[in-house]
Design a protein that fits this description.
With 79 residues, this protein is mostly beta strands. Helix content is 0%, strand content 57%. Strands 1-2-3-4-5-6-7-8 form an eight-stranded antiparallel β-sheet, with no helix packed on it. A hairpin with a 2-residue loop joins strand 6 and strand 7 (65-70).
């Protein structure tokens, strides 16, 4: 079975907030826009879902669901 992962997707989150995510073709990095700031995240190894993170932010992707948190506090989600 072949799964096609889109490079860019906009997730609609709680309160109709939109989280735009751009993934690199190799899926090793992802970028999100947050208040005019572009945040680069690197892929982390997890068993259940896609996770991208850096020192401050974590992005969790699972199918049509997404969540972005900073230092453990949810910024966008559920999406």
């Amino acid at each position: 079975m072949c799964v096609i992962v889109r490079a860019s997707i906009e997730y609609v989150c709680a309160n109709d907030r939109v989280l735009a995510v751009d993934r690199a073709a190799d899926q090793r990095t992802a970028r999100v826009q947050l208040g005019g700031e572009e945040i680069l995240l690197r892929r982390a190894d997890t068993a259940a879902q896609e996770k991208y993170s850096n020192a401050d932010y974590s992005l969790y992707l699972q199918g049509e669901r997404a969540m972005l948190e900073r230092s453990g506090q949810v910024l966008y989600g559920p999406c």
